[in-house]
Amino acid sequence: MTAVTTTPPRDDTSRAFRAALPHLAPFLAVLAAALLLPLVGNDYWALIGTRMAIYWVLVSGLNLVVGFAGHLAIGYVALLTLGAYTTSVLVAGNVMPPLPVFAALPIAACVGAVFGVIVGLPALRLRTFYFAMSTLGFATIVTQIALAWQSVTGGGIGIAGPEFPAPFNTAWGFYFLCMAIAAFTTWISANIARSRFGRALIALRDAEVAAEATGISKPNMLIAIFLLAGALAAVAGGLFASLQTYITPDAFTFDLSILFFIAILIGGRGSILGPMLGTIILTILPEIAAPLAAWSTFLYAVLLLAMTFVGIKSYEYHDKFVHYEITLKDGKFADGHMVENKLKREGTNYTGYVVISGHEVADKKELYDLHSHKARPHHELKIDGAQILKMDNYGPWHNTYTAIYFTLTGLHALHVIGGAIVITYLWFTAGRMWKTGREQFTNRIEVSGLFWHFVDLVWIFLFPVLYLL
After folding, report:
1. Which of 120, 166, 266, 366 could form a disulfide with 361 if both were Cys (CB 3.0 to 4.6 A apart)?
2. Beta bridge partners of 344
3. Residue 384 parent element (H or E)
């Protein structure tokens, strides 16, 4: 008699959790660090941590507008201002009987949602920098109203921020409240990003005409996302007003707009974790670089340019390292981007298969003919491992062309690093040496200038020579 064994049903829940764990791990690490901060920090770090959480509440909504919908909303400090003043005015009772802060905050969120849609309406017609200018214009209008409406906002004198009741009226109590709200907004934005709604936003961002042709309504999508982003920005404003204890229009500077925008650029579009880490870095950075506070706007601009450069280069590097050239045993060549790699190497032979998106040619010279390469359509090619003689990607070792590319990138990086070293050296020695030895300082400027010109000269000559090779 043969024994019959039954296979237990697979636990789909545990398998799904294991699959999601690598994505959740970074968020859990950030949450653990936030929970451990009270054990190692004082009230000063409670203030910094609270500011991080408040900024992230705003950035989590703005990220859906900029990172997922693809609209350059630079002036979102206006909605932060609106939320701060709405909450403060309602709690102070300047226009109606005073309200509790927990009642004023949802009202501020509703006001922010309405004005978020008003700010977003031009996005139905405007794109890129034109829309960015319209958001900056709205920020200017809000600031001027706050200054002029003295009977309500206090004008240039300002108004007291709302105070939360116990146990949120202490530094650490308010910290945990802001962290809880930040965790909630993270959950909301992550769910939206992974939903059909998030994928529809990405489709509108990358191929608007094609997305609308499939039935995605651009007005409905944008109104909904601006509604949410405006509400979150207003909530962040109410929390920010409480953190500041007293607010004036000067508290809502253009630097804040730049900080929110750069935080998203650092993290990369289409990401939740990246902008969160960008917000944390940009909040801590001014505290670490306090001696350079006067240069904060300049440093933000430099950081923006540096991240743009790194982002472009990382995309180019990734493109080259997933771009493969395959030499086949029949003398033909295949070239394209990796789609699926199931190859196993056994000595000099391959087993399994590989799928690339590219094309197959009979002559290797055709791979480097840019005109025919551009015109030739790409197809998914499934190649058996037994047919493959050699396969490698377009890293610096691949051929002379990619070696020159990586050499140029390295020289460019050295050029930028050299300039940064010279500028940093002059910054940190200028004040002291100008007082003690002006002639010596002048000599060092001349030497630094000569060094910089030498680096420029080498770069100017090497670039065309290596490029033409």
Report:
1. 366
2. 351
3. strand 379-384
> Do 125 and 273 fall within a single domain?
yes
Average pLDDT, the chain: 78
- Does residue 112 sit within a domain? yes
Domain boundary among 265, 288, 311: 288
The half-sphere exposure of 219 on its side-chain side, counting CA atoms within 13 A, is 3
What single-letter DSSP state applies at residue 295? Answer: G
How many other CB atoms are there within 10 angstroms of residue 446's CB atom?
A: 10
- Last residue of some domain: 361, 393, 425? 393
Q: Tell me the three state secondary structure of residue 358.
A: strand
Q: Do 352 and 417 reside in the same domain of the chain? A: no
Contact 384, 360 (CB under 8 A): no
Half-sphere exposure of 143 (CA within 13 A, CB side): 16
Q: Say if residue 88 is in the same domain as residue 73.
A: yes
Q: What would the two tokens of residue 448 be?
A: 């630094």
Residue 420: which domain range? 400-468
Domain check: are 411 and 375 in the same one? no
Mean pLDDT over residues 51-57, rounded?
92
- For the record, the structure tokens of 198 come out as 């998030």
Structure tokens at 256: 């804040």
Q: What is the pLDDT of residues 240-285, one digit of tens each?
A: 999 988 888 888 888 888 888 888 887 777 788 888 988 888 888 7
Q: Are residues 81 and 106 located together in one domain of the fold? A: yes
Residue 351 forms beta bridges with which residues?
344
pTM (two decimals): 0.65
DSSP code of 3? -
